[in-house]
Amino acid sequence: MNISQNEYANMVDRASPKSKILKDCIGAFTVGGFICIVGQALTDTYQYALGMELKDARCLTSISLVFLSALFTALSWYDNIAKFAGAGTLVPITGFANAVVSPAIEFKSEGFVGGLGAKMFIIAGPVIVYGTAASVLYGLILCTVRTLS
Q1: Does pLDDT of 118 surpass 80?
Q2: What does the alpha-carbon distance between residue 91 and residue 31 come to, in Å, rounded to a whole number?
Q3: What is the rounded distance in angstroms from the CA atom of residue 27 to the CA atom of residue 21?
Q4: What value does the mean pLDDT take over residues 5-16?
Q5: Judging by beta carbons within 10 Å of its beta carbon (0-12, 13-18, 19+), is residue 94 exposed, middle or buried?
Q6: d(Cα 40, Cα 27) in Å, to the nearest integer?
Q7: Cα 90–40–128 angle (5° rounding)?
Q8: Which of 57, 64, 123, 149 is most exposed by smallest CB count within 10 Å?
Q9: In the chain, what are the domain boundaries?
Q10: How far is CA 93 from CA 63, 84, 97, 98, in A?
Q11: How far is CA 114 from CA 126, 128, 129, in A?
Q12: Smallest Cα–Cα separation from 85: which of 46, 10, 34?
């Protein structure tokens, strides 16, 4: 069957769901903002209620957010939140924890080594690799610039 590009584009438009961009943006902003509010509330609680230094409170906040994200992923709550919030759940630390835990849960039936261990970084692995490579490249550029100045 030969169809023109215009006919194909019309078929794609009819088959594709219409984006509710305003609703999607509001959901992402609301949930992403709420995650940030929770992080700030945890930092304030650790700092003022428990008397921790700011550096330590921030570290414990990161640990807490990773734990909560992993727990919500394991309980299948994170997916439901992501359906509403879309990109709002990709606030870096919670999204990263979700990206590590999701494949691990999916492949746990294949065993600890071949399933859980091998598949845990299937999504997050490239982020780690390219993030590390980019940081080395940026470091080399910075050293070069400082050496030349």
Answers
A1: no
A2: 9
A3: 10
A4: 85
A5: buried
A6: 20
A7: 35
A8: 149
A9: 5-106
A10: 9, 19, 6, 9
A11: 19, 20, 21
A12: 34
Output the CA torsion sign for 55, 57, 58, 64: positive
47 within 8 A of 54, measured Cβ to Cβ: yes
Identity of residue 65: L
Token pair belonging to 109: 């039936």
Report how far apart the first and last C-alpha atoms of the chain are (Å, whole number).
64
77-85 and 21-44 helices, crossing angle to 10° = 130
What average pLDDT does this structure show over 38-43? 96
Which of 8-12, 23-27, 44-48, 128-132 ranks highest by mean pLDDT? 44-48
